[in-house]
Design brief:
The chain has one domain (about 1-270). Helices cover about 80% and strands about 0% of the residues. It has twelve helices and no strands. Helix 2 crosses helix 6 (about 110-140), helix 3 runs antiparallel to helix 9 (about 180-195) and helix 11 packs antiparallel against helix 12. The longest helix is centred in the C-terminal third of the chain and has 32 residues, at about 240-270. The protein is globular and about 65 Å long. It starts with a helix and ends in a 7-residue tail after the last helix.
Length: about 280
């Protein structure tokens, strides 16, 4: 029993190590992606200062408040979307490396495979987001002295579980549809971007979209992080945003694994494990 557990742990670590090696191999792409992410985050954040200029002095628009609101939205979304991308690209990576048959036929549990992938995704996303946050804070001279950084981090981690479950479910699309499945996952992330209040309050949305926002984990993560960083709310005060995320995670992760397992069985029967989609 102990030997079997050790084997699964080593296998999970192996998938993490494989992803680290991929990052090292394509280091130039990582620099490009980092520069793009920083530029994109700054571009959105500058909308806050732009609105102050456009509205004029008589409109009483505080550009700094808008900048902070947008900065938090872009950083939280960057964190969650990177997790989503790394997990949904799981099958695509195997196809690129020409290892999809060997990986899905290997004598390891799928939960081991997913655990290695998701742990790496969370750690990579935290590091990536921290770099973007540092550049943004320095450029806009944002005062973080009153912010509850620990509470904000707790919100990100709590939201990771439900996002992982959703990402695992979305990752079946590249498995079932080798040609365009990877592009199809963008539908999921686009809908969540629309309804979660990344760049605007959910209250401005139509009623139908506000209803969808209730089921998006990103909605609660954004609300909680903004409370922690903008208002310096105590971590205990964030509990109303944390408990829905924990419930979503408890439901989404097992459901995601079950959906992936069913899709994997279908893909094997239908001969979908081609190295080149």
């Amino acid at each position: 029993m102990a030997t079997a557990i050790q084997h699964q742990i080593r296998a999970g670590y192996g998938f993490m190590e494989r992803n680290v090696n991929l990052v090292k191999r394509y280091w130039a792409w990582e620099i490009v992606w980092m520069v793009y992410s920083i530029a994109n985050s700054l571009s959105v954040s500058y909308i806050g200062l732009g609105m102050e200029v456009i509205a004029g002095a008589s409109a009483n628009v505080d550009g700094r408040v808008l900048v902070l609101y947008l900065v938090i939205g872009t950083l939280v979304w960057r964190y969650l979307s990177i997790i989503f991308i790394w997990i949904t690209e799981l099958i695509s990576i195997e196809r690129w490396e020409g290892t999809i048959e060997y990986t899905l036929m290997a004598p390891i549990r799928r939960i081991t495979h997913m655990t290695g992938q998701t742990v790496f995704a969370v750690l990579y996303s935290l590091l990536f987001t921290a770099v973007v946050l540092l550049v943004t804070v320095l450029l806009f001279e944002i005062d973080m002295s009153q912010a509850n950084l620990f509470g904000g981090t707790v919100m990100l981690i709590a939201g990771s579980f439900s996002f992982i479950g959703i990402s695992i479910m979305a990752s079946v699309l590249p498995l079932i549809f080798p040609e365009r499945g990877s592009q199809m996952t963008h539908i999921v992330i686009a809908v969540m971007l629309l309804v979660s209040g990344v760049y605007y309050p959910v209250s401005v949305l139509p009623v139908a979209l506000q209803t969808l926002a209730v089921f998006s984990p990103a909605t609660y993560v954004l609300d909680g992080v903004r409370l922690a960083l903008l208002e310096g709310a105590n971590t205990l005060v964030l509990w109303p945003q944390i408990w829905p995320l924990l419930i979503m995670g408890v439901v989404a992760v097992p459901l995601g694994l079950w959906v992936f397992n069913q899709a994997e069985r279908y893909a094997k029967r239908a001969g979908k494990l081609a190295r080149n989609g």
